[in-house]
Amino acid sequence: MKVFNCTTKRIFLASWVSINQAEPSNAHLTQLHSSVSKSYCDPLQPLRKWLDKLQVGDRQQAHRLCKMIPAQCPFERDVKLFGKTLFHIPPMCKLNPLYEEVVGLRFRAMCYLADECGEDISQYC
Length: 125
Prior knowledge:
Blueprint: H1 3-6, H2 26-39, H3 45-53, H4 59-68, E1 77-81, E2 84-89, H5 92-95, H6 99-116
Antiparallel strand pairs: 1-2
Helix pairs in contact: 4-6
């Protein structure tokens, strides 16, 4: 028996949209943002900001970054011995708390190579 045979073939989604919806006030959004940032203490926040502000301005540096940072999250593995699983290694991106910032840095390096230097970046994709 296939799961597809027991599922709904047509799904109907409905929602209400107001055309004259008032714009949210900036004061409310600022209060919401400040209350969220005060309640959550992130010790890696300075490092995150530093990585986000880091600019790529050298061709050799951009090549090194594209080679060092992998294009995809390394896959997870099960370590087995004699057919029994000893332990499970989760995907490496889940272990790295700075994964988003590092991938963003790699993307900026690739954009620098393609836009500023006019190089072919297909080897890094």
